[in-house]
Amino acid sequence: MFEICHLGFAICFIIPYSRIFADFMVIFLYMIKQKIAEKIKKAFKKEFNIALDEVDLSYPESQFGDFSVSCHKFAKDLKMSPQEIAQKLSETLKDKLIAKTEAIAGYLNIFVDSGMLSKEVLSDILNQENAYGSSKITKQKIVLEYSSPNTNKPLHLGHARNNMLGMSLSCLLESQGAEVIKTQIINDRGIHIMKSLVAYQKLGNNETPESAGMKGDHFVGKYYVLFDEETMMDEAQEALRKWEAGDAKVVKLWEQMNKWVYEGYEDTYRDLGSEFDKDYYESEIYKSGKEIVAQGILKDVFKKEEDGSVSINLEDIDLDKKILQRADGTSIYITQDLALAVERQKEFKADSLIYVVGQEQEYHFKVLFEILKRLGYEWAKNLRHLSYGLVFLPEGKMKSREGKVVDADDIIAEVEDLAAKEIKKRFPEISDAELGQRSDAIGLGALKFMLLRVTPSQAIHFDPKEAISFEGSTGPYVQYVFARISSILENMELPEIDDVDFSLLAEKEEKELVLKLMQYPEVLSSAAENYNPSALCNYLLELSQIFNSFYHKHSVLKAEGGTVRDARLCLIASARIVLKNGLNILGIEAVSKM
Ligand code: ARG
User: Fold this and answer.
1) Ligand 1 contact via 186 beta carbon (within 6 Å)
2) Quick one: which H or E segment has residue 83?
3) pLDDT at 30
4) Is a pLDDT exceeding 50 seen at residue 452?
């Protein structure tokens, strides 16, 4: 009855990344699926007197129905063949939702009444609108850390990926009912910060971002690049000592330079849509790291070496020996992380803490989590590192001054520029204001989608031209479908749901679309559970494709007979809602005009 020919189910591709949710959350099943699951439970009870907790309903290939239950695992207990079990269930299972059942090869295949299904799914979407797909299934409190820059440079392309992952993950988790506290640790102290400071002291001549006409973070980054390891290193070390001792002059300049940096970050964060509930500063917490080190020595978890350095030996779990404090008593990167974790947990008492940090720090987080466990922190088992791969650009393109990393701001400007050119081609008459608005939305949509479409663990090869294309697996492709539906619905009033005959949505493409829309809540919860926004990207691409094949074949406004038109209006209005909800979770604006 329902033909799902080429539907790729996004949920099948998801790699179970982390399992913190699994203990707390059952994947949210769509209502109709739940109803059918209930019927099947009843049938089991009636036929075999078994009370099932859960029913595994899968999506079979279209010719085998809309849902299917494998009866193989019951065969042993019931001393019957799977086929016999399926047969018996098929005979008992009767409901107005179910058009037909079949028992094939030990599977119970269920064909849902398509009119009922369309009515159920579409009226649910139309009634819930923005809330469609969300649930309250988890009550977890989650502290999420992302972005976390060093205040000696602007944010780079890798940060853009990090920020996209952080923000979309936060929206995904919130869509499942979690309370998410978004944080960043700002690494604002240490020798690398002193490098830009010393270079500025020597070469700055009282220049300011204003006088140089530069964004504050780029301005400070400029001095970091001007730092000369050979001639200035001693001074940087001296500056660090002075800073630690609270030297007024050094501290004042340090504050000024950081302020410039934060002003610069603010713009980039606004473009990326990043927000934080709480910023932590390394300068404020690094000292308590030393206290934790001292406690660790007392607890015999850490060892004080002869040279005065402190270390932990993790060779028993192949993590080597790790220094936690240098011989001169200065703390290192991991020392601040010990303090930060303890501090955050004290403050928020979260059920879990997720760090969005690049792949190159996997070892660091393994060690950190292990140390916290050995120090006896019960909550250490709830720490997760969401690691992600590098972002590459097409060779030879867009290199920064150092010839290495590319600034996030430059990439943002590039995609917005490309978007503007594309729009201008289509609408030569467009006003500047309108052009500016649309190119921001489309350019950023392109960038964000490209950065999220790839599974976090994989590297990205980012080509701005490809990202901005209105065709292909891109953000603008999805945005375009949204705009297309918006223009069809412009000035149209939707019919009263109760007056619509949903059984008229009988075409293959219509059924495909309804089924795809039905899957949205599951895709969302699964993407959240697996910390994998790319599953949502894939879903939105598939949904867009299905909409396009529907619209290619069938007319909406000119549909024969007002009643078919009404049903189709509801169908595409529902698709519009789901596209918008999905894009919003990814931090991408759904625009009515492209
Ligand atoms: N600022 C660090 C860097 O750029 C990343 C910090 C990651 N977070 C943490 N808690 N260690 O490498």
Assistant:
1) no
2) helix 82-92
3) 61
4) yes
SS3 content of the chain, % helix, strand, coil (to 5): 55, 10, 30
Dist. CA 564–CA 506, nearest whole Å = 10
Rounded average pLDDT over 198-227: 97
Q: Is 369 in the pocket of ligand 1 (CB under 6 A)?
A: no
pLDDT tens digits along 293-331: 999 999 999 999 999 999 999 999 999 999 999 998 888
- 183 C-beta closer than 6 A to ligand 1: no
The tokens of 390 are what? 């590098």
* Residue whose CA is at the smallest distance from ligand 1 atom 11: 337
Q: Where does CATH 1.10.730.10 sit in the chain?
A: 408-585
Q: What is the rounded distance in angstroms from the CA atom of residue 295 to the CA atom of residue 309? A: 14
CA distances (Å), origin 82, targets 41, 72, 92, 199:
16, 5, 16, 76
Does residue 148 line the site of ligand 1, with CB under 6 A?
Answer: yes
CB 577 within 8 A of CB 467: no
The span from the CA of 242 to the CA of 32, in Å, is 67
- The per-residue pLDDT for range 28-51, each reduced to its tens digit, is 446 778 889 999 999 999 999 999
Q: What is the pLDDT of residue 554?
A: 96
**17-112: which CATH topology?**
Gyrase A; domain 2 (3.30.1360)
Phi, psi of 49 (to 5 degrees): 55, 40
* SS3 assignment, position 522: helix
Cα 465 versus chain centre, distance:
23
Binding site membership of 337 for ligand 1 (Cβ less than 6 Å): yes
pLDDT at residue number 363:
96
Q: Decide: residue 396, CB within 10 A, 0-12 exposed, 13-18 middle, 19+ buried.
A: exposed
Q: What is the DSSP letter of 239?
A: H
- What distance in angstroms lies between residue 409's CA and the mean position of ligand 1's atoms? 20
pTM of the model: 0.90
With a pLDDT cut of 70, the percent of the chain lying above it is: 93
Place of tokens 């412009």: 490
Q: Are 521 and 132 in contact (CB under 8 A)?
A: yes
Report, at the CATH architecture level, how domain 408-585 is classified: Orthogonal Bundle (1.10)
Which one of 224, 357, 369 would you pick to mutate in the ligand 1 pocket, going by the greatest count of ligand atoms within 8 A of its CB?
357
Determine the distance from the C-alpha atom of residue 531 to the mean position of all C-alpha atoms in its chain, rounded to a whole number: 6
Is the CB of residue 282 below 6 angstroms from any atom belonging to ligand 1? Answer: no
| Distance from residue 163's CA to the centre of ligand 1 (Å) | 13
Which part of the chain is CATH 3.30.1360.70?
17-112
Could you tell me which residue, 96 or 468, shows the higher pLDDT?
468
| Closest ligand 1 atom to 340 CA | 10
If pLDDT is split at 50, 70 and 90, which confidence band does 403 have?
low
What is the residue with the minimal CA distance to atom 6 of ligand 1?
148
The answer on pLDDT for 61 being more than 90 is no
The response to whether residue 387 sits with its C-beta less than 6 Å from ligand 1 reads: no
Q: Closest Cα partner for 269 from 418, 150, 160, 172?
A: 160
Calpha distance 497→457 (Å, rounded):
44
